[in-house]
Design goal:
Distance between the termini of chain A: 28 Å
Oligomer: homodimer
Strand order of the largest sheet of chain A: 7-10-11-4-1-12-13-17-18
Number of domains of chain A: 4
Radius of gyration of chain A: 28 Å
CATH class of the largest domain in chain A: Alpha Beta
CATH superfamily of the largest domain in chain A: Glycogen Phosphorylase B
Bound molecules: pyridoxal-5'-phosphate
CATH architecture of the largest domain in chain A: 3-Layer(aba) Sandwich
Structural class of chain A: alpha/beta
CATH topology of the largest domain in chain A: Rossmann fold
Number of helices of chain A: 38
Largest sheet of chain A: 9 strands, mixed
Chain lengths: 864, 864
């Protein structure tokens, strides 16, 4: 085997090749003159002249431009390429160090990574932002203008994808050997436009790779074959093995995205797969004149990774989506297996070297795929393979919404992945020694329980329940906030809790990276905190509990003034942004009230806009003198609706049209205005969040698993108005209930209320006259064509699944309390300081350490 | 307009932006600190430490590799990227200088550019090859091993495409402002494989861009819309104008390939267009679940440039090919027009600033497209527009083969390009003031003549004759060798010669670049020549007539020995290559006889293989003692057949199977062996050509327009056996008939012989018993399944369009004369020296100067 290694020494280049060592264990220089190499090698550039030369060099060569025709975008490209070079140097050292040390690794499998922009984040993490700023200034550019040239990497829908991005940041910062695995969608989440005519959402493709992506590294030598369709032929030896052959073969090609840690050389890897045809062009068909046929194979292969499904919290069962899931898990597992095999350890130790986190059920096929590899290819016995699998995987559930629980039709899986269908049947069926038989043994005769726990749901067609499969195949299962993790146990998997015992089920409350969500998006606040705590910023940014040190300054008037001034500046930055975007002036003396998140009935943007209308009607009724006493307020909305989500799109249309009316109403528009900012994105969030006085997190109790934007607002000193749901609860626990504006019914009430709505409905007019008035105003055509909104209003009037009628009055009262509290500005600033000070728990560093220690059992390795 | 320029100053960046000037005409520094910029800017690296650092830097960053996992391919990539940086620096200076000086420019429109490898050529042209060699050695690599890692850029079929590549090299070397325009095919000419079973040709796609292409520069900011289909609505004002709208719009995106001149900073541009969908992904269809529809548009747009048509000298009339032609000419003209408009000259001066060379009829639509732009968009009056057009274009005809003369069906053009069809009708029809009416005036009543000269050929469907259109729309027309240019006048366009007078028709005999085809591929000979001439090599490489200086050394025995030694080394290099490729030893004492070119009946590889069989049969009949007196010979073939060209593919199969038999015949294989080297390419030519003793250029007289490989062999001191055809004639004029082995019937005989074959056939047995015996041997199954070859043999036995039966005996006699001449080795070496010495005329520098001076009227501009 040392011979095998020698043979591999000069061989091209999957990540993780490392030098031969001599007798003393010192690395031998592989080829050429060591001194020549070392003299010519570069490290990370941190000095101004090096950085300037590097930027200018990229202008001249990579961009082939001259100073004469360099614009901000060109300057961005050159700066990005220059920073990229530094990232690669660290990335290389990190991968080499991990290969040498061969630690247990963790892999984060996520169909979504909502990365946002990279340039600023990378410069901050490398500690070179000021020097790059200086270099750019000297060259005639401004850092801010350059930074905003970057297009967001928007490979995600919302919270789940952004969480994955924060976790990667924390894993590098915590120096943990963690890789992400995802798909390199050619088109990320759609670009949202607002129809000028009727205010409705329009969707345009997001060709984010159009101008090349400096943050990825195509690894042309890392490719795997992935099979679809074909036939699976079982061995007749009772081993459970089979041969899968025929069908379509597609190539998975790796693109690596460098994930720099903050204040460390450690730079983890996010590997994204692109699908490619295996055999390029079909020349025979082409020559035979059948051009369509000639490109067909090539098209259908490339199609797999061409677009991100734009649905959040819903599952549709489309074949292409299943192809994406299998393509991604198969390529990722093949890659992990290759890396593991380089260690030359027995296959039985696989789980000692690999932990795989399943981000929701999307990658659940990985469980089946690993079984396939172990049983069919590695010839591991079935039970031993199942032992390895169930020690390798960990599963995070992200929602209790039934429409989000993935199910795949059995005929579809059978057709696309015949071998995997066999394995699934074996897991639940006769060959399965470990699961169903033992269930049977434990609960003899409880056929209902067996049916509930089964992987296959009866029906036409039968369906595979991916969540059950994920639970069965994983070592641990967790939810993403305390309440949610309880609901996971009590609502979704009670039978499994019964069967496995509660210790298989845990909680890791979500978190956010304070680097992006404070230092980067709110430099003013970051500076103020550093100066106040008298700690270098890399200390508190890596140990966010240090923020508690702010508490002792809460009564210091100078500090309060500075705190308020930072908020004011951020509001002015937002106002400028809105002015540039929409051409309207925003009053920064007003309270900024923000709700930004995916449009979804359960998130209840509808409640918010109905509340706005209520406020508008109240203002209209007042005399000018009365109005003068009202708290001025600007309400911001942003968020995308899934293109097929009719009700959510109607809500957007209502918001936009309400804004058009009230913003131009001279009676009221000094006191209330409203903006829907199109195309919500990470970068937009970075402008909005630091500018909020209050933000809204008003999901029906028991529906929002955690939420993370709530944490971001609080970290930036914005207060919350919210329901007792998700992480709002834990935020309140930290900051104290008096610093949060809670309202609405609690989770245990909801089921009863829904029952009542259906079986003993009470008219809105009775339940909430205020709400009824608002609904009637919309129905009267005050905001345009009345008939348009009826389907939306009817969801409130009839059935009211999300209990708006029950919560409306309490909501309005909560907003009144907000107004009152805001009137005492000093007290408000103190609330704001206390809120930020208590956000230590919500650093994603804490989360990733939870996973590392309680789940994956991986350890930090500092790269030097 | 100085204000317009100011407004443009900081605007992104089409090639050719240039600095504002102050009152004194000095360029103003555009932005930032001039000193900071200038200190950080780099020039071409020529020193070892810079070059080493640059290579190592690319290893670390661009490749993200360490010395530990760097193989030859990685070293190639790093060296290539490093050289690329230098090319870009010069390319940038060149484009800037041309923009400033605003000279008349020439554009070479070619559907094919057969570039081959670039690394070595670029290093030689930059004069840095030795230093790069040293750097690579220090880093543990060898330059030769690194160079051969590069994949050929094979965007061409053969001679026409390689000629285009040589012309670009010469245009840069001659410091002429010339750009090439072509298509960036995703798949170049297919890769040729030989079926192990039956010896037939197999075709595989050539995914040449798979590992990224360091020699191109994506110019993401240079894109144009190209329209297809739709409707054309004429104005009713009699202006001839129309509006073309609707249909499909596709994007043309530019990729620039840097073309370095030899020993000059001048680096011209080859701009290749890639087709892209205009609107990316159709999200609506995607969400509606219609995935197929969603990708359809995107696929059909990308398809346009996805593959090079693999046919040489044939035209098929496929819609996709027409789309390629229009896409390419439309994008190229839009680009030229934009560049011209930057000059702010009146449109009437277009032809004073632009000359466009049409490489064969493929870009003929450019004539119509320029009319469309001028008339419809620039609102130039029809006659004035036609005046501009006919002063702008120049047309090179490349063949007299009727199957190669392009015709496009009128319904197809009408459908795809409705506006262009109108314009074509206007050129020939009622609106045309300049052409048909004047023809009518000149030859009143000669309707036959009118029909022959018409652009539209009657029939079902009607067809547009692109060659006629090219002649009518061009200022001058030329052929590519003296004989061919005569045939162009007498056979193809006699009516047009009559009409326009002979001065519209000229000749530019093809040429080749001595940089690639001597200095690069034959460094031994290059060194010997430099030492012998006592001239720096950049002198004779730029003035190839200097080679005549070798004549005075022809009788010097030491020089003769050195000359022979170089040839011997090149033969050994080829032998090593063959041994590595096929695992067979090649006897370098034998005469090397080479025929390498596209497989085509007119090129008569069949004659050659039948001659080989004849030699084999003769050897078989001999006693061992007799055989010992025979000249030992190794015959090499290489070349691709169009995938649909049945007879040509049979010839390959015959060659391969004859080789299998005779190479293992112990009676004869010491005296005669035969190799078919698969996948002929520029790089393979570079190994074969310097190793030839004799090469074969044996086309039926009057069929090969010029040939260029004949020149390459002669430049490398190989002698020719050939017919009195194409450039063979001019080669013989230069080197003297006694240094060329001519055979066969002359061009004027051919028509009569063909007539005879059809109307008074003489059996082969009578005409050439030797040939009859060879044919019968093949028919007898001596080289495998007899029935397979019958269709091929029948082309000789019946009809014999290419007059093999007439030329066979004379061919065999010529080969005998070659044997005799080769027996006197000293005399042979002298012939070889004299041949090389007389190749001055065939430098493509001479050709490009011919075009520049006699056709385009463009002048050299040295960039400093
Ligand atoms: C672009 C984007 N989408 C979605 C989210 C998640 O928002 P929430 O936690 O409110 O669902 C965030 C978090 O800030 C985000 O930045
Ligand atoms: C790859 C390739 N194809 C075709 C040709 C043209 O060959 P010929 O002039 O023999 O047709 C050449 C010239 O050397 C070549 O290099």
């Amino acid at each position: 085997s040392s011979q095998a290694r020698r043979a591999r020494r000069h061989v091209r280049s999957l990540t993780g090749d490392f030098p031969e060592v001599d007798e003393k264990g010192e690395p031998k220089w592989p080829k050429g003159d060591e001194k020549v190499w070392k003299d010519a090698m570069r490290g990370v550039h941190t000095e101004l002249p090096d950085i300037t030369r590097s930027i200018v060099g990229h202008v001249q060569t990579s961009l082939a431009r001259a100073p004469y025709n360099l614009d901000d975008f060109g300057a961005y490209q050159a700066a990005a390429l220059s920073v990229r070079d530094n990232l690669i140097v660290n990335w290389n050292s990190t991968q080499l160090a991990f290969s040498r040390k061969a630690p247990k690794r963790a892999y984060y499998l996520s169909l979504e990574f909502l990365m946002g922009r990279t340039l600023s984040n990378a410069m901050l993490n490398l500690g070179v932002q000021p020097t790059y700023g200086e270099a750019l200034t000297n060259l005639g550019f401004s850092l801010e203008d350059v930074i905003v040239q970057e297009r967001d990497a928007a490979l995600g829908n919302g919270g789940l994808g952004r969480l994955a991005a924060c976790y990667l940041d924390s894993s590098s910062t915590q120096e943990l050997p963690v890789w992400g695995y995802g798909l390199r969608y050619k088109y990320g989440i759609f670009k949202q436009l607002i129809n000028n005519e009727d205010g409705s959402q329009l969707e345009a493709p997001d060709p984010w790779l159009e101008y090349q992506n400096p943050w990825e590294l195509p690894r042309l030598d890392v490719v795997y074959d992935v099979r679809f369709y074909g036939t699976a032929q079982r061995y007749t030896d009772g081993s459970g093995r089979a041969v899968w052959s025929g069908g379509q073969e597609v190539l998975a090609a790796a693109y690596d995205v460098m994930i720099p840690g903050y204040g460390t050389k450690n730079t983890n890897n996010l590997r994204l797969w692109e699908s490619k045809p295996k055999r390029g062009f079909d020349l025979q068909s082409f020559n035979a004149g059948d051009y369509e046929r000639a490109v067909e194979t090539s098209t259908s292969a490339a199609a797999i990774t061409s677009v991100l499904y734009p649905n959040d919290h819903t599952s549709f069962g489309k074949e292409l989506r299943l192809k994406q899931q299998y393509f991604w898990t198969a390529a990722s597992l093949a890659d992990m297996m290759r890396r593991f095999k380089n260690l030359e350890k027995p296959i039985s130790e696989f789980a000692e070297y690999n932990a795989i986190q399943l981000n929701d059920t999307h990658p659940t096929l990985a469980i089946v795929e690993l079984m396939r590899i172990l049983v069919d290819e590695e010839e591991v016995a079935w039970d031993a393979a199942w032992e390895i699998v169930t020690n390798t995987f960990f599963f995070t559930n992200h929602t209790v919404l039934p429409e989000a629980l993935e199910k795949w039709s059995v005929p579809l899986v059978e057709h696309l992945l015949p071998r995997h269908m066999q394995i699934i049947y074996d897991i639940v069926g006769p060959l399965n020694m470990l699961f169903l038989q033992s269930v049977e043994k434990k609960y003899p005769g409880d056929t209902k329980k067996l049916a509930r726990m089964s992987l296959v749901e009866e029906g036409f067609p039968k369906q595979i329940r991916m969540a059950n499969l994920a639970v069965i195949g994983s070592r641990k299962v967790n939810g993403v906030a305390e309440l949610h993790s309880e609901l996971v146990k009590s609502q979704i998997f009670p039978d499994f809790v019964d069967f496995y015992g509660p210790s298989k089920f845990g909680n890791v409350t979500n978190g956010i990276t304070p680097r992006r969500w404070l230092d980067q998006c709110n430099p003013g606040l970051s500076d103020l905190i550093t100066n106040t705590l008298k700690l270098p910023k890399d200390v508190w940014l890596k140990d966010l509990f240090k923020l508690e040190g702010l508490i002792q300054h809460v009564d210091n008037p100078l500090f309060q003034r500075r705190w308020a001034a930072v908020k004011r500046q951020n509001k002015e930055r937002l106002a400028l942004f809105v002015e540039r975007l929409l051409g309207v002036k925003v009053d920064t003396d007003a309270m900024f009230d923000i709700q930004i998140k995916r449009l979804h009935e359960y998130k209840r943007q509808t409640l918010n806009i109905l509340g706005v209308i209520h406020r508008y009607l109240a203002l209209k009724k007042m005399t000018p003198a009365e109005r003068k006493k009202v708290q001025k307020k600007v309400v911001f909305f942003a968020g995308k609706a899934a293109p097929g989500y009719y009700i959510a799109k109607l809500t957007i249309r209502l918001i936009v049209n309400v804004a058009r009316i009230i913003n131009k109403d001279p009676d009221t528009n000094a006191y209330l205005s409203l903006f829907f900012l199109p195309d919500y994105s990470v970068s937009l969030a970075e402008v909005l969040i630091p500018a909020s006085d209050i933000s809204q997190h008003i999901s029906t109790a028991g529906t929002e698993a955690s939420g993370t934007s709530n944490m971001k607002f609080c970290l930036n000193g914005g207060l919350l108005v919210g329901t007792v749901d998700g992480a709002n609860i834990e935020i309140a626990e930290e900051v104290g209930e008096d610093n949060v504006f809670f309202f609405g019914h609690l989770t245990p009430d909801v089921e009863g209320l829904r029952y009542q709505h259906v079986y003993h409905p009470i008219p809105v007019e009775e339940k909430s006259p205020a709400l009824a008035l608002v609904l009637d105003t919309v129905s009267s055509g005050a905001f345009g064509d009345e008939s348009v909104y009826e389907p939306l209003l009817n969801t409130v009037r009839h059935g009211d699944f999300y209990i708006l009628t029950d919560d409306f009055d309490s909501y309005i009262r909560a907003l009144e309390m907000v107004d009152e509290a805001y009137a005492d500005r000093t007290e408000w600033v103190k609330k704001s300081i206390r809120t930020t000070a208590k956000m230590g728990k919500f650093s994603s560093d804490r989360c990733i350490q939870d996973y590392a220690q309680e789940y994956w059992n991986v350890e930090s390795i500092k790269v030097d």
